[in-house]
Amino acid sequence: MDLMNEAAIRRYPELRDLMAVREAGWTFRPLYDERELAGIAGSFSRQQYTDALFVFDRTNVSAARVLDDAYGGGCLWFRQRADLREVIQDILGLPEPGQPGAPYLVKRSSLLWTP
C-alpha cells in the first residue's frame, strides 16, 4: 500500500473496507454533479447478476443486486442511506443466487418508472 493510501486510511478508516472491495474485483467510477465529484460508483458483475455500490459520503451509501435480464431481470436486494462499512459487509455477505439465504424475490418497479 502506498503512502497516500495509508494516509487516507488513517484519516478515514472505512476506506480500508472500500479498498478491500476493489481488491475483490470490483470496478469503480467517479460520479460527477456538473463538474464536481459527487461520489463513486462500484460494480461487480457475474453472468447472472450485478452488484452495485454508490458512495456519496460515509453515511450516505446505497447498494443493490440486480438480476440479469436473461434470468428474469429486476432488483433482488437494495439498501440505501446507510453506513459505508455496514453496506459493504451486507453486499459482500450476500449468497450467490440459488444458494441458501440468497435474496430471490424481485422488487418490481411501478409503471411510473417506465418510459
Please characterize this protein's 3D structure:
The structure is a single chain. With 115 residues, this protein is α+β, with helices and mostly antiparallel strands. It has one domain. Helix content is 23%, strand content 37%. It has a 5-stranded antiparallel sheet, with helices on one face. A hairpin with a 2-residue loop joins β1 and β2.
From the structure above, extract its key features.
single chain; 115 residues; alpha+beta; 5-stranded antiparallel sheet; 5 strands
Distance between the termini: 46 Å
Q: Would you report the number of β strands?
A: 5
Strand content bin: 35-45%
**What strand line-up does the widest sheet have?**
1-2-3-4-5
How many discrete domains? 1
Overall form? globular
What value does the average pLDDT take? 85
**Main sheet properties:** 5 strands, antiparallel
- Indicate the percent of residues in helices: 10-25%
Count the helices. How many?
3
Order of helices and strands: HHEEEEEH
Structural class assignment: alpha+beta
